[in-house]
Amino acid sequence: MSFNNLDQLYRQVIMDHYKSPRNRGELTEDALTINMNNPTCGDRIQLHLQVEDGKVTNAKFTGEGCSISLSSASMMTEAIKGLQIEDALNLSQLFSDMMQGKEYDPDQYDLGDIEALQGVAKFPARIKCATLAWKAMEKGLKETDSK
Question: What global pTM score does this model have?
Fold first, then answer.
């Protein structure tokens, strides 16, 4: 597959998650709620996490933002459901490395649709958009893990 075709496929995946976000909504029962925003562009997210016995059992989000921010939140909530806290945090570190253009081991986790966001690394101003939901997840899970 040529680079242009791959780039187009990635754009389609991002727009699919933006137009039809997965896990959009709120959790109420014993959910951890984390609010974060990106003041430079106006993106904001409210992330809801259900954590039981050290495992993320459910994740949802609400908020407003650009296609990169909301697509990333959609992909992230899909990816972390069912993961142990440690694995979710490791996945977040892998994503952060990808966003910074660092070498990462794609075999460590099946990134699935998340891989479509790797092109964001070429646009430093957009990295904060892509990482907003991930930073919220890290904050919430680290708080949960320390209890």
Answer: 0.92
